[in-house]
Design a protein that fits this description.
alpha+beta; single chain; 2 domains; seven-stranded mixed sheet; Phosphoribosyl-aminoimidazole Synthetase, Chain A, domain 2
């Protein structure tokens, strides 16, 4: 007798198993040909001279309050950022709340206040939504789903990286993971979640970007492998120029978790033509002084780390159980 297959936790944590699950689900749907960019952070649809970009995401976070944010802030930032990395200006958000019976009203007020704050600061309104309450024990506290629409003149796709481009990080990576893991394990750190909206940052440099993505689940390893695979290029990161704080590297070593799989919620990675790199960096440093060039794009395939002694170490798409309930 064979056992029925079940969905494993790691299938929702980013990486190879997540991509496999999504691919299996997608096979069941026939998408009308007018919808494009179906494997990017959002789908696009031609509207005259503009392109409508549509994205959606569900958020379950543990803990729901953490240094630098909460589940409400992540939900807003995550959807705004998914639109922004595609070159779209976000114009509206749908907010859906599923709340467990017994959830403290005071905590819900704090979460709604965070959502409202991001909405006001970015100028992206909540335009529709839904709220449900489920029986005690049927949900772990609260789940938030946000969908968003935006308008773009030019779509930035993950398949646009070209040999000769440089790889730019908008700031230190993995600090969202550090903030949550430190709180879980009572590890003392000054690092707060990097969670923030990226719409203004990306809009300021969008015309120069050949590919862009925010490294959420699966971190930099997943994002860069995705860009390399879809663009059919080789990405080489430079060990001496990596954008990880010392505390991030330390926690990575302590827990035995690859820092390249640590997610961020307020950073993006992009490829930029060499001729435009200086002006892009100068602009991004106005938002975050830690923005820097971390690598280059070459002919070939895959993602590699060029070590300080000149060797190349392959960075694979994350596999196995990563970090559950980070975003």
């Amino acid at each position: 007798m064979t056992r029925d297959k079940t969905i494993e936790l790691e299938a929702g944590a980013g990486g190879e198993k997540s991509n496999g699950l999504i691919s299996d689900i997608r096979k069941n749907f026939k998408i009308p040909s007018k919808w494009k960019n179906l494997e990017d952070d959002g789908a696009s649809y031609e509207l005259g001279k503009k392109k409508l970009v549509f994205t959606t995401d569900a958020f379950i976070v543990d803990p729901i309050f953490f240094p630098g944010g909460d589940i409400g802030k992540i939900a807003m930032c995550g959807t705004i950022n998914d639109l922004s990395v595609m070159g779209a200006k976000p114009i509206g958000i749908s907010l859906s709340l599923v709340i467990e019976e017994g959830f403290p009203e005071e905590d819900l007020k704090k979460i709604i206040a965070s959502i409202s704050k991001v909405s006001r600061e970015t100028g992206v309104p909540i335009v529709t939504g839904d709220t449900k309450v489920t029986e005690k024990g049927k949900l772990d506290k609260i789940e938030i789903t946000t969908s968003g629409i935006g308008l773009a003149g030019k779509i930035i796709s993950n398949n646009g990286a070209m040999p000769g481009d440089v790889v730019i990080s908008s700031g230190n990576l993995g600090e969202h993971a550090v903030a949550l893991l430190a709180k879980r394990f009572n590890y003392k750190t000054k690092i707060k979640s990097d969670c923030k909206p990226l719409n203004k940052e990306i809009q300021s440099v969008a015309k120069y970007l050949t590919a862009a993505k925010d490294p959420t689940r699966g971190g930099a390893a997943e994002v860069l492998n995705e860009i390399a695979e879809k663009s059919k290029v080789k990405i080489v990161l430079e060990e001496n120029n990596l954008s990880f704080a010392k505390e991030t590297a330390a926690l990575s070593g302590l827990l035995g978790i690859d820092k390249f799989s640590f997610p961020s919620e307020g950073r993006f990675l992009a490829t930029v033509p060499q001729k435009d790199a200086k002006k892009v960096l100068a602009t991004l440093k106005r938002f975050n002084k830690e923005a820097k060039t971390i690598g280059r794009v070459e002919k070939g395939r895959g993602v590699y780390l060029e070590t300080s002694i000149g060797g190349l170490k392959k960075i694979d798409m994350p596999r196995g159980k990563l970090i559950p309930r980070i975003c």
